[in-house]
């Protein structure tokens, strides 16, 4: 607080930016969703998919004939297999609800029946494993001599794939929500109108959002990446200046998109509907949780043009593959096109009242 | 109370000529002329929907007229507007300031937009919010929020102050408190354009008022002069117990009654000399065998001016 007699030095841009921080940090929910939630999500998913390689395969053997116990014993001696002896109906039920990946059904004639769903990758793996164990137990000799060498590479696990995706998703969410809600709220409360009734510079008002966004961005990115590196040992293979550039450009692009969404909306409901409409396709298609290449070839041009796809591709290339500047120019061009296009359109459409 | 940093504008603070504004098929402002002299508190008085807010927002440069001319402190809008805004103080209807900021932070923000003006702490003291300076805006009462709005209008040491319905929705005590603040600002020689639909507010604060209805001015002058024009210092209203009734022409014939009318079962008389008219009225009612159910008298107000001009009350809507 300024006392009379002390020189007043508040620059409007400084004051406006401080207002942005105050409004953000005095809203515990916003702090949670922007900073804490992505870390919790990474932690949860990272633990859930922690050691897929060591996952055990669960199979069932149906208790018909005298062979069953013998087969189960042979399977139990193999690595990575859990075997349960079940009645026919119980085994079918377990297969149907996914408690076992396949069922071995012995018959009186000695012929075995493998019951499994060939569209489930883990069932197909189980079939190969089980068949190999049983054939060898029955005396098969392999004509080729082989030796296994196990390589567990950092950067190829699901968590390594996931963290850049979550980072991209977070940049999108905080950019669009952070700007969109604040502006629509101010418009709805007629605060925007009150502000333009003062000599305030309109560009300084918009600049205050950019400035505050940049500071929050540093916290946001370092929290999530720091967590990934320290807890899950995510490799940071690319150059850090490039990583910082990708984050910066992405954040500005999503902030512009947020500005565009907020340029006309009069109510929070209208604005949040628009935001979801814009973000939903990217949550689904842009490869946050699984690779975007799983979608059909025909819609790939659409997917590749989405800003979040470009952001996540660039982040993964930098973080996981150590790609240099020249390898991500395409992605950066797409992100910047979104940034400039949205910003220009937003300025054209923006309503202060 | 406000340190005189700026010499108030001399001459005409605000001039509006033949202003028109139409929204779709509703005519909001229909050829309005106004002149606010320097150092004057000018009131736009009218019911809701009379076009007051549209007029004020056009004067504030927040809305554009379909036609007509607006000169604010001798200048028009559309050229170096930010320079002109430095000299204006504005309080809009229904602005909600950010609830998460404190009073002090809000005033500091608004002060930072102006090149000159009092310290934030001084402005907060002017509107008597010192004790609330560190409180969040969200925790303020309605009256305190209106005083904060006034503070934000005063931070730039304005020459001309626009106040759009400054006391709407406030309790009587908060209204009186706000009136005192506005009177002190006025005493300093600044000009004010105020809109209100409270006649008592206009009578107390305004040097001159324009009564507007349906976007048109229907009366202009000092409040006392407008009331005097009724040629009736008092208003008598009465109702009769069913089924009695009395003919208005009989009432008009009573000595001292200037006008009489009947609306919704209530008789309304404009009376110049109450002490002579009342006994005659009561005698007349007795003669007609009419039974009084209700009787009220009050000194004539701007409300009565509005009623005599339009046949409606200000807050009928």
Main features:
heterodimer; A: alpha/beta; abc type-2 transporter like fold; four-stranded mixed sheet; 63% helix; B: alpha/beta; Alpha-Beta Plaits; six-stranded mixed sheet; four-stranded antiparallel sheet; 13 strands
Adjacency order of strands in the biggest sheet of chain B: 5-6-7-3-8-9
- Strand proportion of chain B, as a percent range, falls in 25-35%
**Into which percent range does the helicity of residues of chain B fall?**
25-40%
Arithmetic mean of pLDDT of chain B: 89
CATH-wise, what's the superfamily of the largest domain in chain B?
Answer: P-loop containing nucleotide triphosphate hydrolases
* Total count of helical runs of at least 4 residues of chain B: 11
Q: C-alpha Rg of chain B, in Å?
A: 23 Å
The radius of gyration of chain A is: 28 Å
Q: Structural class, from helix and strand content of chain B?
A: alpha/beta
- Total strands of chain B: 13
Distance between the termini of chain B: 38 Å
Low-confidence segments of chain B, given as residue ranges, are none
Secondary-structure element pattern of chain B, one letter each: EEEHEHEHHHEHEHEEHEHEEHEH
Helix content of chain A: 55-70%
Give the CA-based shape of chain B: elongated
